[in-house]
Design a protein that fits this description.
Helix content is 29%, strand content 16%. By secondary structure, it is an alpha/beta fold. Strands 1-2-3-4-5-6-7-8 form an 8-stranded parallel β-barrel.
Length: 507
């Protein structure tokens, strides 16, 4: 018996030692050893929320904190004029009521992390979490690095900590999203007529910059063509603060996924590499599998997961990827006149993304008081009901060798989702799990039959013999006929469900 114990101890010690020896260095070559964990590839669907002091004014979008400062002496006044005029009319001059003055109004008095986590779980999300810090410089966690945080001001609660506990109780992964790099120039710290230039608020409003220093990030086209323009980047202090807050989030909350907005080109590349090395090594130490995401060129390819914003891919990709999109067509935070997407639109989007080796991170829009608007809840529950019936065709699946068929063509590109029309019954997407192929039709056909051209005998895409076909949610197996020009599936008289319809093919 003692020998057996000795062998076990040696084996365990050996495994522990090998894990500890594997260290990521802060260089791209070392970081390319990273592998996307299976939990992310299996999860497919996550939820996060833009929620902070910018939720208080409920006006147009989450950029309110930026656009409210576009006074006539600001170069961006033409774009932000309506925000500025609304702010002056509603709240008063910017030297009397600045963005900082929204923080006491952001009370979150109805915020219930248990209710939120329950809703995320019922919606079918497998990972969830808040925006940890938006471009406004306000930390949504109990931070020792800045007094401008949710534990110290506004809600006076550790929003991230409370959500992390409840989300993990429900066996979901916890995520944190980070936008702080946008703070560089977000507020007009050069403008002496506003509170943003007051040194006592510098920890919130960011470093003192010059007029015109706020710039949009370089586009991929500019990068590819070597175009240069005036583009200030963060100094050492700003870089160090950017990284220190990330480390505090990692050390305190152990997020399973850290998502980044773009504009990380204001951060020195060395700090970006140091973040990844720190995060991946921290995960190794805790025996945790983690994901970091990036947009465009902010991390080197292969070191993290690529994310596209309000967009999708036109073709299947060989690598796992993510898309983030908001439930509201117009905004990422709660506004007084939202334009919510339908559950059907979101489900079709999810199916299309999954068929192409992607995952969806859906943003929702809580009110400043912590309530999640009823229409948002209704849509999430509708998505959850669909996933409850059809989730086996989503969770844990992998792309087939053909992503799908149909006449609807996807337009790629940053913020391109508006250009993509709704899907029709002509559109079918495939996923696979083991020896099972799922064909997902994105609307119910009016003809009483479904014809899948890709699975016809002449297409040569399917060499196996089909044993049976069932429609998920229906009690009986379906009759079918595989002809040269397509697989003909004969449908029940009435649809089973209201959204995308899943055919399960066994061989």
């Amino acid at each position: 018996m003692r020998r057996i114990y000795f062998v076990l101890i040696v084996l365990l010690a050996g495994n522990w030692g090998s894990a500890q020896e594997k260290k990521y260095e802060a260089d791209w070559l070392s970081l390319k050893e990273y592998k996307t964990p299976d939990w992310f590839r299996d999860a497919k669907f996550g939820i996060y929320c833009h929620w902070g002091p910018y939720s208080v004014p409920e006006y147009e979008n989450e950029w309110y904190s930026h656009w409210m400062y576009t006074s006539p002496n600001n170069p961006e006044h033409k774009q932000g004029k309506r925000f500025y005029e609304h702010h002056i009319k509603t709240y008063g001059p910017l030297n009397e009521f600045g963005y900082k003055d929204f923080i006491p109004m952001f009370k979150a008095e109805k915020f219930d992390p248990e209710e939120w986590a329950d809703l995320f779980e019922k919606a079918g999300a497998k990972f969830a979490g808040p925006v940890s810090e938006h471009a406004d410089g306000f930390a949504m966690w109990d931070s020792k690095l800045t007094p401008w945080n949710a534990k110290n001001m506004g809600p006076k609660r550790d929003i991230m900590g409370e959500l992390a506990r409840e989300i993990r109780k429900r066996d979901m992964k916890f995520i944190a999203t980070y936008h702080r790099q946008w703070l560089f120039g977000w507020f007009p710290t050069w403008d002496e007529s506003t509170d943003a230039s007051d040194p006592q608020y510098a920890d919130l409003y960011g470093p003192k910059l010059k007029k015109g220093d706020f710039q949009y990030p370089y586009s991929t086209k500019e990068i590819d063509e070597g175009i240069k323009r005036y583009y200030p980047v963060g100094d050492k202090k700003f870089n160090e603060e950017w990284l220190a807050r990330l480390k505090e989030i990692i050390d305190n909350y152990n997020p399973d996924l850290v998502w980044f907005d773009n504009k990380m080109d204001v951060i020195d590349e060395a700090y970006r590499k140091e973040f990844l090395a720190y995060y991946y090594n921290h995960a190794l130490k805790n025996d945790q599998e983690v994901v970091a995401t990036y947009k465009f060129y902010d991390f080197a390819k292969g070191t993290a997961v690529l994310d596209v914003e309000r967009a999708r891919m036109s073709e299947m990709k060989s690598f796992p990827w993510l898309t983030d999109d908001s439930i509201d067509w117009k905004a990422w935070s709660h506004i007084s006149n939202p334009d919510y997407k339908s559950a059907n639109r979101i489900i079709d989007f999810l199916v299309d993304v999954v068929s192409k080796n992607g995952c969806l991170l859906l943003n929702i829009t809580p009110k400043a008081n912590g309530e999640i608007p009823a229409p948002v809840q209704e849509r999430l529950l509708e998505i959850g009901e669909w996933l409850k019936q059809n989730g086996e065709a989503i969770y844990g699946t992998r792309p087939w060798h053909v992503y799908g068929e149909g006449s609807t063509r996807v337009i790629e590109g940053h913020l391109s989702e508006r250009k993509n029309p709704d899907n029709t019954a002509d559109d079918i997407r495939f996923t696979v799990k083991g020896n099972t192929l799922y064909a997902i039709q994105l609307d119910w056909p009016s003809s009483g039959e479904t014809v899948i051209r890709t699975l016809g005998k002449n297409s040569k895409q399917l060499e196996k013999q089909i044993k049976s076909i069932e429609l998920l949610g229906a009690s009986d197996k379906l009759k079918f006929n595989r002809k040269p020009d397509g697989l003909y599936i004969y449908l029940p008289k009435k649809p089973v469900g209201k959204h995308a319809f899943v055919f399960k093919l066994t061989f």
